[in-house]
Amino acid sequence: MTHAQLLSAYTTLRLGGPARAVVECKDTASLVETVTRLDRADEPVLLIGGGSNLVIGDDGFAGTAIIVRSTGITFDSDDDGPFVTAAAGTDWDTLVAATVDAGFGGLECLSGIPGAAGTTPVQNVGAYGVEVGDLLRGVELLDRATGRAEWAAPSALELAYRTSRLKGTDTHVVLTVSFRLNPGGVSQPIAYRELAQRLGVDEGSSAPAAQVRDVVLGLRAGKGMVLDADDHDTWSAGSFFTNPVVGDDRIDEVMAAIVAKVGDDVKIPCFPSDGGSKLSAGWLIERAGFTRGYPAEDAPARLSTKHTLALTNRGAATTADLVTLAADVRDGVRDAFGVVLHPEPVFVSCSLPR
User: Fold this and answer.
1) Tens-of-pLDDT digits for all 354 residues of the chain?
2) pTM for the full model?
3) From CA 164, how far away is CA 21, in angstroms rounded?
4) Catalytic residue positions?
5) Nearest to 134 by CA among 99, 182, 174, 100
6) Which residues contact 215 (CB under 8 A, 6 or more apart)?
7) Are 84 and 95 in contact (CB under 8 A)?
8) DSSP-based three-state secondary structure for 341
9) Among candidate residues 168, 167, 161, the one with its CA nearest the CA of residue 139
10) Could you give the count of Cα atoms lying within 13 Å of 165 in the half-sphere of its Cβ?
11) DSSP assignment of 295-318, as one string?
């Protein structure tokens, strides 16, 4: 155990003040024991996996931070086909690479996403037309009220676009995750146009998983979405805002506002979604006047110079700097188009002003 350690060391944004104590759990048994012991002592607990979806305030966390380092990957099969199971602290991209190297497909479109495997079902991580929920077989959860560990089926998790019943709650701890895989190294159907074009295949068709992984990694790197300690564009929480879904009762009004701003000859990314129409947050941010690198070259917190959906720490930022930038962008999009963007990361000891 270490004391009064800055949590910036455990987040991909490299932001966050001190915790009262920091404990690293290197296996599932120690994770269960530590959480149970601290809960019995009424000690506030903050669980951190890969730290890729966390915005921690400058004042830190008034309790103990548990760093989930449990690792382990196993392959197996049942009547429904092959699957992979991993301890919650397993690096996500290490898991994806292991499945591809073992000759399986399914997770390749999720290559390069930073973070721990156990956090991926919490927000139903997704990229390039694939979501974790598409492959999820089950999640082993520690019920903090009873101290029992039990497996939960995907249907029990209320998985939706970048969320689940686990997000924003502290009733359970993810211990283990399991995913269905495609035999024969066959990818999931390619549902993302840019990816299909790079692969030279039709949308809806499949491709070798290894090839898809390589292309996805290249696309993500080009957008500053693959971690690189020497590239401040990757000192981020990934995509900061979720793509907004506008209800059918407002979509005409919003589209009219967009046309008034950008002109009627510009193609507006808009896709059918549950509850309405999904717009591109990155596209809206740019069209609202926020350019890559906004607000200035010497600003401590800036939009990525590669991708406007990522808010970045240029090396000397505080969480307050980042929150101010996020509110500026959110308010600018709202004022321009009447669309409110919602942050994707989990906020700890801080929040966006209303």
Assistant:
1) 555 689 999 999 999 999 999 999 999 999 999 999 999 999 999 999 999 999 999 999 999 999 999 999 999 999 999 999 999 999 999 999 999 999 999 999 999 999 999 999 999 999 999 999 999 999 999 999 999 999 999 999 999 999 999 998 999 999 999 999 999 999 999 999 999 999 999 999 999 999 999 999 999 999 999 999 999 999 999 999 999 999 999 999 999 999 999 999 999 999 999 889 999 999 999 999 999 999 999 999 999 999 999 999 999 999 999 999 999 999 999 999 999 999 999 999 999 998
2) 0.94
3) 29
4) 162, 239, 344
5) 182
6) 195, 198, 199
7) yes
8) coil
9) 167
10) 11
11) S-TT-SEEE-SS-TT-EEE-SS--
Which helix H or strand E contains 213, and what residues bound it?
helix 209-222
Please name which of 64, 341, 100 lies closest in space to residue 214, comparing C-alpha atoms: 100
Query: How many Cα atoms sit within 13 Å of 302 on the Cβ side?
Result: 20
Q: Give yes or no for a contact between 3 and 20, defined as CB atoms under 8 angstroms apart.
A: yes
How many beta carbons lie within 10 A of that of residue 168, not counting itself? 11
CB 116 within 8 A of CB 92: yes
Beta bridge partners of 19: 61
Gap between the Cα atoms of 74 and 63, Å rounded: 34
> First vs last Cα of the chain: how many Å apart?
37
Which helix (H) or strand (E) element contains residue 126? strand 126-127
Q: Name the residue among 25, 6, 2, 23 with its Cα closest to residue 14.
A: 6
User: Across 50-113, where does the E strand assignment appear?
Assistant: 54-56, 61-68, 73-78, 81-87
Report d(CA 6, CA 9) in Å as an integer. 6
Q: Amino acid letter at 187?
A: S
**Does the bond joining 295 to the residue before it have cis omega, within 30 degrees of 0?**
yes
